[in-house]
Design a protein that fits this description.
heterodimer; A: mainly beta; 5 strands; globular; B: alpha/beta; Nitrile Hydratase, Chain A; 2 domains; two-stranded parallel sheet; two-stranded parallel ribbon; 10 helices; CN_hydtase_beta_dom_C (chain A); Elect_transpt_acc-like_dom_sf (chain A); Nitrile hydratase subunit beta (chain A); CN_Hdrtase_a/SCN_Hdrlase_g (chain B); Nitrile hydratase subunit alpha (chain B)
């Protein structure tokens, strides 16, 4: 399912690095956080598979906006962090 | 002897030989790729920025498809990741970081500066970006929003900064001369001189 611009999303609070070797492009500081989809950037082979030379299905990649002060409980209101995140790491926020 | 102790030149010669013998890359293809890689430099990105300042149609192309805009100036982009261009406005300042490693738009900016890969820059750009900018001497006016773009995946990002006051009417080449590497990462602003 394609996520539309403006959709509120939750980054999965998942830590594959605790289960074994992996290559993750979702930064630690965003796991479990809530953001807003800005746009779909395109579909790209899953780097988590590419890194291990496994067949890599294409995944949608989104530009997702996060409120910067909310991530750290400090900073300037209104500032933001915008990050590329694969659809497999996102769930629609309720 | 482990691979880490092997003489680098011999290892490289062996690797090139294997790439050719297995039909993965010819010596000509490797030479061409080295030529393209070494052609990347901040001067290339600066040419794009200067053209965008004087040519609205080019600015629109650059913002919608950075790679096509680069190719239009003769910058080779084949095999490079998509290039996203972040437009600064009087109300918004962009800052680029790669917190995971050192993703960088090498085709248009060359090799990243040493500090771009440092743990301190990578951590502070997302945690305390305004403090970090202040140390660069970059003070954002109060009404300007800061957008930190963490380059984590398949895109590469460069900033299209605001044209500084006092440079109106300058020829493109002169404008390109004032655009520095840090201005296209977002740690500094271009200045008239």
């Amino acid at each position: 399912m394609m996520l539309r611009p403006g959709t509120r999303v939750h980054v999965k609070n998942d830590w594959p690095e605790t289960r074994g070797p992996c290559h993750i492009r979702t930064p630690h500081y965003l796991r479990g956080e809530t953001g807003t989809v800005l746009r779909h950037l395109g579909d790209f082979p899953n780097p988590e598979d590419l890194a291990f030379a496994r067949p890599a299905p294409k995944l949608p990649l989104y530009h997702v906006r996060f409120d910067q002060p909310a991530l750290w409980h400090e900073g300037r209101a209104g500032d933001e962090v915008v990050v590329e995140i694969y659809g497999s790491w996102l769930e629609a926020a309720l | 002897m482990s691979i880490l102790e092997t003489d680098g030149d011999r290892l490289l010669t062996a690797l090139r030989g294997l790439l050719a013998a297995k039909g993965i890359a010819t010596p000509q293809e490797i030479a061409e790729r080295i030529r393209i890689t070494e052609g990347g430099s901040p001067a290339q990105g600066a040419r794009m920025v200067a053209k965008a300042w004087v040519d609205p149609a080019y600015r629109a192309l650059m913002l919608s498809d950075g790679a096509r805009a680069a190719e239009q100036l003769g910058i080779p982009m084949r095999g490079a990741p998509p290039l996203g261009v972040l437009e600064d406005t009087p109300e918004l300042h962009n800052l680029v970081v790669c917190t995971l490693c050192s993703c960088y738009p090498r085709a248009v900016l060359g090799y990243p500066p040493f500090w771009f890969k440092s743990a301190a820059y990578r951590a502070r750009a997302v945690r305390d970006p305004r403090g970090l900018l202040t140390e660069w001497g970059t003070v954002l006016p109060d009404h300007v929003k800061l957008r930190v773009v963490d380059s984590t995946a398949d895109y590469r990002w460069m900033v299209l900064p605001l044209q500084p006051a006092g440079t109106e009417g300058w020829p493109e080449e002169k404008l390109a001369g004032i655009v520095r590497e840090g201005d296209m990462i977002g740690v500094t602003f271009p200045a008239a001189g």
